[in-house]
Amino acid sequence: MIQVFLDTNVVIDFLADRKPFSSAAAQIFNASVAGKIKLYISAVSYNNIYYILRQSLSHAMTIKLLNELCEMTEIADVTKSIIRNSLKSEFKDFEDAIQYNCALSLNKIDLIVTRNTKDFKKSFLPVMTPEEALIVIY
User: Fold this and answer.
1) How far apart are CA 79 and CA 21, in angstroms?
2) Where are the domains of the chain?
3) What distance in Å separates the CA atoms of residue 38 and residue 123, rounded to the nearest whole number?
4) pTM over cut 0.85
5) Which residues pair with 113 in a beta bridge?
C-alpha cells in the first residue's frame, strides 16, 4: 500500500470543494477509502484547515468535517524536533517545512502530494501534484 502525505492545500481543496482542484483531491481520498493508499496529514494542518473552512461554514459543520477527516487519515504529530529541523531547513515556507519534516519523521512515506510542488524543491521524498499521484496510484 502506498503511504501518502497530504499537504494542507489538497485537504482544503477536498473539504471546501475548491474547483477545479477538488476533483483530483476527491479521487485521492477515494483511493484511500478503496484501500489503495494510506493518507497522512500533519497535526499542524488542522488549525489551518479549520481557519479556512470556518470562513464559509459554521463552527459545528467545520468540526464535523474535521472529525470525518480524522477517520480518513493518520495524523502526524508535530514535535520539538520537527520544529527545530523546520527552523533549520532551507524551505522558504515555514508551514511547508513543518509538513515536510513531519513526513520525514514517519519513516514510511512514499510520496508527498501538494499543488505547490515548487515549495518542496528541497525534498528528499518524491513530491507530486494530485494528478501526478493519481497516475502512480492507479
Assistant:
1) 30
2) 2-137
3) 20
4) yes
5) 6, 128
